Amino acid sequence: DAKTTQPPSMDCAEGRAANLPCNHSTISGNEYVYWYRQIHSQGPQYIIHGLKNNETNEMASLIITEDRKSSTLILPHATLRDTAVYYCIVSSWRSGGGADGLTFGKGTHLIIQP
Amino acid sequence: EAQVTQNPRYLITVTGKKLTVTCSQNMNHEYMSWYRQDPGLGLRQIYYSMNVEVTDKGDVPEGYKVSRKEKRNFPLILESPSPNQTSLYFCASSPYGLDEQYFGPGTRLTVT
Q: What are the distances in angstroms from CA A85 to CA A82, A97, A109, B37, B92?
């Protein structure tokens, strides 16, 4: 079963903030929320991750709701180069040790319009 | 430059002919992993390694082998490839596993 739900596609105007939602209603207390993106068939690129607090780095901001059942990735000033598939992933350590693999679902295809 | 490299980038082979896809990272990362990507299925983890000589199965390990004899290298071995292993393969590394993962450029494999 998918741990996350994302809209299949979204459009955003260049220069505007892109807000990408993700539902993870079954997230457990030790699971982190990760965001990656993939441009065409290149290797996925890490964007940001968090556990419960909001996080910000040079690429984006991650807002996690207080109940942790959903989150939003914000690209503050989208450019044409931000057109990509964005993946929201929840992950934690495997019970037997070792990090749980990142399970990439279908993600959201974000298209930045000029 | 910090990077993950994979070779070859493209490979067409025939059923049953053993092949190895190499993966190397120059960041002294402990954790390395292999994924395959198929249309409609997303990326799925094949094997991962927490450190030298420590490997474990991911979600789709059948038909694959790995080894981790050195920290920087994590080759993926297909002993007897079959057409259902036609896919886009990615190697990734990270300092400890639950943090930022760096992905290689991918290897597109076709098995006829």
A: 9, 30, 4, 13, 18
